[in-house]
Amino acid sequence: MQKEVVVSGIRPTGFLHLGNYFGAMRNYVRMQDEFECYFFVANWHSLTTHPDTKELQNSVYRVIAENIACGLDPDKVALYVQSDIPEIAELYLYLNMLAYKGELEKTVTFKEKARAQPDNINAGLLTYPVLQAADIIIQRAVKVPVGKDQEQHLEMARNLAERFNYRYGDILPLPHAFNYGDELIKIMGLDGLGKMSKSENQQSTIYLADDNDAIRKKIMKAKTDQGPATPNSEKPDYIQNLFTLMKLVSNAEAVAKFEFDFNASSTGNCAIRYGDMKKQLAEDMVQFIAPIREKANAILGDKELLHKLMKQGADKGRSRAAETLKMVRNAVGLNY
Ligand code: TYM
Known about the structure:
The chain is mostly helical.
């Protein structure tokens, strides 16, 4: 039976963090055995914010290395850099004709970026979701493992595929956001304010490249409170976030102990000791991240290997992309 096709991408705008891991990369690693997978570094998308291009180059290598260090096998999946697949750019052009200014202006990420960089509201920023749709549609993907923040972009990709099919003939499958649990995931910063992020909120974000001391310091500073005043209270989201992280990296007994303590806290006599919880979480996080960091550094030191893997990924990625583009050109009537 034909395997379902999966696509997902990560922007190389900085160091990868636990949000990227938990929201996306953990699923990539699980999906590589079950599906036909295409994972890539979205370097064109990064240009919308005018980064330093030298840093951008280093980040591209890092994203590739960290993906492999997290368990992606470049022989099982196609792991490539977006700009190595020029077919995406041509599809982006056709999809741009189907995307309307009004809907693009209403996108939450566009509004946020326009607020953050009022002097650089470029057309690439406005059509960012169209490029993302082209990334997905070029491989005719149906499943797209992403975190919660990408939900709206996925809806737009689906709309654009539908619109294309309506206008030119039913040739494109419709993509959906995917997570193994029911819900898409959002990992908050440890200060309880925004989400963990590559470029903002750095003291409250745990990066896969952080050293052991940095991990310990950040977790010990995580926001907590006095504890619940009544038994079986609902957890505030910054406390829930600590439990979520603990479930990711600690063993089941540790999670169960702190869950029990949280629920046993009653009438102001809080049984849970957040200091102990954070110590446990910090040590388990160190154990979790150290091997990823070390493996990523080893790969990063071997540029020859990286280039070989990037070329291999681009060849795999281009082969299906070229097939799609041919179908698209035929459907649009560009076959003279
Ligand atoms: P990016 O680079 O911001 O993030 C990469 C992936 O990590 C997820 N993620 C999070 N998940 C949970 N909690 C967080 N705090 C958190 N922060 C990031 C994101 O949801 C994403 O899955 N536009 C995309 C890149 C992209 C793409 C694509 C994705 C370009 N083309 C095609 C899928 C398919 C982005 O900026 O992701």
